[in-house]
Every structure is written in structure tokens, then in C-alpha cells.
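Batch job 17 of 40 flagged for manual review because the log was empty.
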Amino acid sequence: TITGNSVDMGTVGNPGVTYSLMDLRAVSNCTVSGNSVRGMGRATEGIYVSTGGNDTKSDNVTITGNTVMSTFVVGIEVEDWVEDFTVSDNTIDGFIADDTLPCGALVSLSNSNPNFKCPSRGTVTGNNGYRAQNGILVRGSEAEPGTALSVSHNVLNEIGNAANFVVDSFSGSIGIGLEWCTNGSVHGNQLSGVGALSFITLANAYPRPLLAVDCELLTIDSNMISGCVSTGTGATEGISVLTLNDTAGVPRHNFNITNNVV
């Protein structure tokens, strides 16, 4: 158990180097709770959980009740072969400075290599996050999709970026995004102000509050979306489910999209 600590990024070091303030690899039955983590705009990740190599997994990990601030890549990241995990009731603020783009994402679940195992059997729930370029990103790959992942009851606000937008792709200002995932759910989340940042002007913002690309066996229900703002050439979407078919002619199946308010 790692609990009750205050960890601040120092003022020295190269911002181009990876600095994870809490770095856990190949751990089992581990809880990270009640910590205050401040990246000072220099740390890449606040709390990071991964494997000890693609042949050694982490499992039964709980990240709960932490405060993560001012990291420049992601607040909380779960990467590669991690199973049976929970990211819950954390507060994540991606603000770095006025007139500066904030943290890249509040929470990220992904595999670092398309052939590495993706996090599975995990839950991201009850988190409060704001002021970031993207909200919660869940990204597997065609070879190793994310499986049995749930994103529920999170409250996200002020999510926006001005990155180049590519039609029918995983891009734009994404509130909650899933790519190459199966048997997942997005339930009961509240998203507001996607596409709008109060401390920097975005020339072209494309709000995409709920986005699923190349997923199947997916439920999106009882989410509330409000106050999205597009700027410049941007356009606002609500709930977008796309099939890009990297493998030509392979369809995706079994979507359940119900009781959402947009």
C-alpha cells in the first residue's frame, strides 16, 4: 500500500525525459490511495502502472482517492499487461499554465506496442477530472484489444485541444474515447465543456465527447453530455461509433446505445 504521501516534481531535469512520479511495475495486490501528486508541468505521468516487461503482468491494483495535478502527458496511466484493476474517486487537474495547452489526457489505458497485451478487466469510475486536452482514453490494438473495461460515473469538464482533425479517426477533443476494445461499457458519465478551455484560445476545436473506434460488444448508456464548444473549422459531435476496418471487410458487432442525454 502506498498512501498519504505528497510528491512534487522538482524544478530540475529535462522535460523531454519520461518522469513518472509514482511508477509501479509488475506489482500484485497493490493499493495507491490518498496521495497528492503534482507534476509542476514537467512530470510526464503522475501515477503509472505497467508490466515488468511484456512477460510479467501487474494485477489486482487499486488507484483510489488520489489528487493528481499538472502532468504534461497523462495524469494516471495503466499500460500494457495489467489485469483486474480499479481507478476510482481520484481528482485529476491537467492545468499547467495560462496560454499553455494542458495535460494530454486525464486517464489512459493502453498498450505501448500493438503486439503487447492491453489492460483488461478494469474499471475507471467516480473520478473527477478537468482541464486537459483529452479525458479518458482506452486504446487497444487489432492484435491485442482491450477487453472487459468499464468507464462509469466519471465527471469531466474543460476538455479540449487544437490538434489536427482527421475524419473517421481517433482524433479531436475526446471526452471518453475507446479504440480496439471489446466487451466494454461507458455508463453514467457526465461530460461538460468538451472543446472549451478557459485559459487558452483554441483555433480549431472538434469536440467528440464520446467516441468509439473499431470496438464491439460495447454498451454506451445513461451518459450526460452538455456545453460542447467547437471553434474555427471545428464541428461538434455527440456520440460517435466508427468502424475503420483496418482488416478490410471485417465488421464490428453488438452495440447497445441507450438512455444518453446529449
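Reviewer: the log was empty due to a logging misconfiguration, but the result itself is present. The chain has a mean pLDDT of 91. Unflagging and moving on to job 18.
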